[in-house]
Structures are given as C-alpha cells and as structure tokens.
Amino acid sequence: MSDRKQIILGAYLGGVNHQTVWSHPDAGSQIDFSSFEHTAVTAERGKFDFFFLAEGLALRERDGQVFDQDIVGRPDTLPVLASLAAVTEHLGLAGTLNATFNEPYELARQLASLDHLSGGRAAWNVVTSFDAFTGQNFRRGGFLDRSQRYERAAEAVALVRELWDAWAADEVVADKATGRFLRSGDAGAFAHTGPQFDVRGRFTVPRSPQGQPVVLQAGVSEQGREFAAATSDAIFSPFTHLADAQAYYADVKARVVRHGRRADEVKILPGAAFVLGDTEQDAQDKARWVREQQVTDRTARILLEQIWNRDLSAYDPDGPLPDVEPDLDAPSFIQGRALLDPDRRGWVARLRALAEENRWSLRQVVVDQFTRTEFVGTATQVADQIDTFVQEGGSDGFIIGSHLVPTGLDEFVDRVVPLLQERGALRAEYTGTTLRDNLGLPVPERARGAVLVG
C-alpha cells in the first residue's frame, strides 16, 4: 500500500443544469435507468467510492412559464439508488434529500432501508431550503425562513441519527436460519422533543450494516461550516483554486477538531469536470467547444436574468452587458434556481468590472463566471493536477462529472484512473465492505459491536 494520501472519488450524473451538453449527438436520457446504470457501473469499474445524485424538487420557471432551457423530468432519488444497489457491489450510493421538506422518521427509515438493501453503501446528502416557490409543493407550504433552515436541519440530522441508534447493539439479533431480525426489549423505542420536532414511537428498521449511513453536506457560510464540522462525514467544497481550497480545507478541519472529532473524520470533496485530449492544445480546443455548447444565446441571457431579475431577451449575447439596473422589487423572474449571492447590485457591479477590464461580451462574461472545467489536458496532466491538489491539502478527493451523459465518465476511468493507480494515489481494488470502510470513516460509537445478518 502506498504511503501517498488516497484520493476519494465520487461520480455524479448531470441533470438539471446548463453544464450538461444535451445537444451532443452521443447524449442519452436523463431519466432512463440505463443512464444511471451505465454511470454507476463505470464508476465502480474505476474503483470510485460512490455515485452521487442531486435532486430537483420543482420544475423551474421563467416569468411564470416552465423553464424550457432546462431538461424536464427527473425520477426520485431513492428508487434510482435502490435499483443501482442491484447492479453494483462496492459503490457507495449517495442521494440528496431535503431536510426542510421531509420528516426525520421518513428520512431515517428510507436511508436505513437503502443501507440494508445495498449491504452498507448508503449516504445522505443533507440539503436545506428557504425557497417558498419549491415549498408550495409540500404540506403546509414546507417554507422556512432563511434563519431557521439550519436550526431545523441540525435537529433533523440529530433526530435521524437518534432513530438509527434506536436499535442498540445488544438488541439487534439475527436468526441465521431464517435471515430475520428478532427484536428484544426496547429495540426501536425513541422519544424526542425539541424546537422543530416532537415525536415518539418505535423505529421499524434494525441497525444498518455500516452502523449509520454516511452523512454528506455542503456549506460555505459560517453557519454551514459549523453545521458540517459538527454533524457531517463529508462536505462538498466549492473551491477548486488551490490557494482558496487550502484555506477552506484548513478552516473546516480545525472546526472539526474543535467539535471533539479527529480531522480525518470529515472528508472535503469539491465537484470537478474534466476534458481530455491527446495533446494539451487538443484538450484546450475541446474545452473551448464544450463551453460554447454550454452557453447558447438563450442560456447566456437566462443566467443573467436571474441576477438582473428582469427579461433580458432583447440583449445581444455578443454585445455588452445590460445597461439597466437589477429590479430588486419585482417578483423573482427565475424561480427554482438558487441565487448564490443575494446582493444583486454588487454582483452586477462585479460583472461589469470584469467585462470592462477584459473587454468581454455578455456571453464571454457568462462563460467565465458560469462554466467550469477544472481539469483540462492530457490524461497525464489531469492525473497530475488531481493528485497534486489532494496531496497539497486542497481536498480529500473530488466528485467527478462530465458534460456528456451518460458515457462521459468512461474516458476518465479508462485513461486517468490507471495513472492515479500507478502512482499509488488510488486503490487498485476495493478493500472495505461498506462505504464507511472505503472512505476511512469510523463506525459511530453506539453502533460498534452490533450483530447483523451475514
């Protein structure tokens, strides 16, 4: 075994976004099971740690109409992951489930069931929402003020874990003859009273194979970093420039230690896209073509309409940025997309400064600010970039995706993975039996010693 830091790899399948080039002649379906299966099987062939699904809970709208720049239709996360459990053996199965719109009992039961079905490979990406537009789909509107979303999420995660722990080690007994779990004593009993939830009863799912499913989260704000450091097993980082990533990595790891945990008990994983070429110039040319396909005339205007909060269809994408100011008082022109910065005026000022400094058109500004291909080059160059980033403390690995669904990951697995394996930075074979094993995460203390069917 190499003494190099081992790189964690997750794979994501592009869905509702502009990064995926659906116009590509080789693009497949975003809803057929074959697309999910191909990506997951390819990731397992590349000895990835897990497959990741994001989630969209509402059809996006532009000026009150369905957002026709987006694909429409995405199956529910959990049935997809449960189906993938049957066609993979080692790959972790991570799903995004909203803590604002779902009840802890339902979340705990669904994820524990997935963990049993997959033999200990389930993971939950915890997300929150203060979006009243999406909340209209849910009971009582499902709406929370921004200030309350982490309060609810923190209590929801704690309660889900309490439910997973409702079956103590000495209460989980397996009948080897029938394969059934036998309950004893107070197995499954729980009672919780808090600001957000007041529940009691018996949890129906016995202790899962990895003790608890892995908990993932994304957070950049002060509140988000603290939430992740206190409760998560891994955190998705938005930083892909090494200096920024190192600062974020050091900050979060220090917070983890302050919460009484070891620094390596939380893994930090940025998302990343790639473009490979036979030469560096070939890769750069391909990357330029991808960006041009990602930012069509309509896409360029729509991405800025979210910031300006007004109809920009009259503006030429190859002309200057809009000369009007953002409309701060109108209802949201784009519904269902997260606004990354609520300071619209400040955002517009920054974009205008970029355009003036670089003499960029509207489209060029959008390409610079809204497309990302972190790793561009030959297979050797991309392997070097990934390995260097991880070894120098920028992250513990990456969530890798492609502009092409579902076959884009194949090239990475065929050409980059063997190079990472040769240098000892990536496993040649799976050594663990659960996702926790493969990620190097500890089993929760209360779960240690649990007796499970097997």
TrEMBL record:
The keyword Oxidoreductase applies. FMN binds at residues 96, 150, 221. Coiled coil: none annotated. Residues 25-394 form the Luciferase-like domain. GO terms for molecular function: monooxygenase activity; oxidoreductase activity, acting on paired donors, with incorporation or reduction of molecular oxygen. The keyword Flavoprotein applies. Keywords: Flavoprotein, FMN, Monooxygenase, Oxidoreductase. It comes from the Bacteria. PANTHER family: ALKANESULFONATE MONOOXYGENASE-RELATED (PTHR30011), C2H2 FINGER DOMAIN TRANSCRIPTION FACTOR (EUROFUNG)-RELATED (PTHR30011:SF16). Belongs to the NtaA/SnaA/DszA monooxygenase family. NCBIfam families: FMN_nitrolo (TIGR03860). This is Nitrilotriacetate monooxygenase component A.
